[in-house]
Design goal:
Helix content: 25-40%
Strand order of the largest sheet: 1-4-3-2-5-6-8-7
CATH architecture: 3-Layer(aba) Sandwich
Number of domains: 1
CATH class: Alpha Beta
Shape: globular
Strand content: 15-25%
Length: about 220
């Protein structure tokens, strides 16, 4: 995609009522106006709030919103033009239970109060394979501590990845820090495990489709801190 097209998409997405962007200094000084008020002031219901972190094009945010209208979904990514597709689709389909935030995942506490989030989805994140970048993995303990500060007591964290290293790393973190592993598959499309929900298999991201065409095995984890 050309730079001009990306700039056009980013300009458009910023006009959407369900797209939010606040710079770090504004968050520090003024706070995020919907923090602790997403249900009352935006979604206008008391349904569970579920996040897609590093949402990219927002395939999971939109797909889940379509499948489960009694939940609210929010995709978070640092690239606004990337989120344009999901935001545009949800707008055209008049989905009232989905929103998007342009921001850094590590700033999640600025957007949500403790206990405001019931589930987190992490779908095909950058595995950050170089050793100096391990701390940037979205299942690193630093990130899990950020998630803990917004998650409800009976929460769930879902992970889908094609990367063996990232998958094994996350299993190690779960074991080392005594988190509760609820479901695990290193080849979910050839796994008869009934604990793998339909939404895990039926919704596929752009990258998932690409890896499947190349014969990659898709891995899935569900755990609780």
């Amino acid at each position: 995609m050309g730079k001009k097209r990306k700039l056009q998409q980013f300009a458009e997405v910023k006009t959407f009522d369900h797209f939010f962007e606040f710079d770090y200094h504004s968050l520090m000084q003024k706070g995020f106006p919907l923090k602790g008020k997403w249900n009352s002031d935006f979604f206008n219901n008391n349904h569970p709030i579920i996040l897609e972190l590093g949402c990219g094009k927002g395939e999971y945010s939109v797909g889940l919103a379509q499948m489960f209208p009694d939940n609210n979904y929010i995709g978070i990514d640092r690239k606004g033009a990337r989120m344009w597709r999901g935001a545009k689709i949800s707008l055209l389909e008049n989905l009232k239970n989905v929103a998007f935030i342009r921001g850094q995942v590590q700033n999640i506490e600025f957007y949500f109060e403790q206990g405001e989030v019931s589930q987190i989805w992490i779908t095909f994140p950058d595995p950050q394979l170089q050793s100096p970048r391990i701390r940037k993995r979205l299942t690193h303990p630093i990130f899990l501590d950020h998630y803990r500060r917004v998650l409800s007591e009976n929460h769930l964290i879902h992970l889908k990845t094609d990367n063996d290293t990232f998958f094994e790393y996350t299993l190690e973190i779960i074991n080392e820090h005594n988190h509760q592993l609820l479901c695990c598959s290193n080849d979910m499309y050839n796994d008869c495990n009934k604990e793998i929900g339909d939404e895990v298999r039926l919704i596929q991201t752009f990258y998932e489709k690409m890896w499947l065409k190349e014969g990659a095995k898709i891995k899935y984890l569900c755990f609780k801190l």
